[in-house]
UniProtKB/TrEMBL annotation:
Residues 162-291 form the Glucose-6-phosphate dehydrogenase assembly protein OpcA C-terminal domain. PANTHER family: OXPP CYCLE PROTEIN OPCA-RELATED (PTHR38658:SF1). InterPro entries: G6PDH_assembly_OpcA, OpcA_G6PD_C, OpcA_G6PD_N. This is Glucose-6-phosphate dehydrogenase assembly protein OpcA. It comes from the Bacteria. The lineage of its organism: Bacteria, Bacillati, Actinomycetota, Actinomycetes, Propionibacteriales. Residues 52-157 form the Glucose-6-phosphate dehydrogenase assembly protein OpcA N-terminal domain.
């Protein structure tokens, strides 16, 4: 069921949700509130990603966007029922009301459950200090949605707060798993490493920071035409461990003493990324250590100058 309300309030939305659930005979059973701040042009894609993630994590999803009207009002579209996991509330803030989103969102948070804030595109300079971010215990940004992804990631590393994470890190999950399994084998000491990725690819930079924090050795970042991360090479006492992916889908894995293997290493869409990120709500200390490495080691950021 979909209900549209123009010029409403938080109390009006709560009343409408209660009426819809009463009419449908639907129970709640939601696990958290997800606050989403998309750019107006990205609403449809972000909505699809939220619905996909909601099938695994039924929740109250609130999309807050800026409207185009000059009048000071908040419009709402409420979706509950068949095909909707939990509840989806799309809010458009017009005029001066757009400057006070947090005040309108606060009464709509589910009681006694986690609150997660997600900026799919451009995000505030300090998410934890942002009025909407302050409502959440978990804040998800995406440096790849910034005008300059590398600069965005470096800036985020410099102001990381407990509860902050970035989908740049989520994009690296398959790479980190593959490289970690390679490092777990007795193949000698890693003397140096290199990460090859597309110009302006923030995940490549963060992967280099992760390797440096884990290995304590030199890691070079080599920009190329992409797509995304195309190669990681670890130089050890016994030879090179290399993962190469040129098409964004399949990769080859080569290591001393082992046959070359073909492995699936597909670049994932935003729905898969946010679904994975919502599975873990506690702090990720490995991510924090990698971001600290990026913030502390200026040479990593310098490697991307002009990228």
């Amino acid at each position: 069921m979909i209900k549209t309300i123009k010029g409403t309030t938080s109390a009006g939305i709560q009343t409408a949700i209660s009426e819809i659930r009463h009419n449908l005979g639907a129970a709640s059973g939601m696990v958290f509130t997800l606050l989403v701040m998309p750019q107006p042009s990205d609403v449809d894609e972000v909505m699809d990603a939220c619905l996909e993630a909601g099938r695994e994590h039924p929740s109250r999803i609130i999309l807050a966007t800026d409207g185009s009207s000059r009048s000071d009002r908040m419009d709402a579209e409420i979706q509950v029922g068949e095909g909707i996991p939990g509840e989806v509330i799309t809010l458009k803030f017009h005029g001066e009301v757009a400057q006070h989103k947090a005040s309108a969102l606060l009464p709509l948070l589910l009681p006694d459950s986690p609150v997660i804030a997600w900026w799919p595109g451009q995000s505030p300079a300090h998410p934890s200090q942002d009025p909407v971010g302050a409502l959440a215990s978990r804040r998800i940004t995406d440096a790849m949605g910034e005008d300059d992804p590398v600069a965005g990631l470096v800036a985020r590393a410099g102001c990381l707060a407990p509860g902050d994470t970035d989908l740049t890190w989520t994009r690296l999950t398959p790479w980190r798993a593959l490289l970690a399994s390679a490092l777990d084998q007795p193949r000698g000491t890693v003397k140096s490493a290199s990460v090859h990725a597309a110009d302006g690819n923030a995940p490549g930079l963060l992967l280099a920071a992760w390797l440096r924090s884990r290995l304590g050795t030199e890691v070079r970042f080599e920009p190329n035409a992409g797509p995304g991360i195309t190669e990681v090479t670890l130089t050890t006492d016994e030879g090179e461990i290399k993962v190469a992916r040129t098409d964004g889908k399949m990769a080859t894995f080569a290591a001393p003493g082992s046959p070359t293997l073909a492995v699936a290493l597909r670049r994932r869409d935003i729905a898969a990324l946010i679904t994975e990120e919502l599975r873990v709500l506690e702090a990720d200390h490995v991510f924090a250590a990698s971001m600290a490495e990026l913030a502390a080691d200026e040479s990593l950021a310098e490697l991307t100058q002009g990228v």
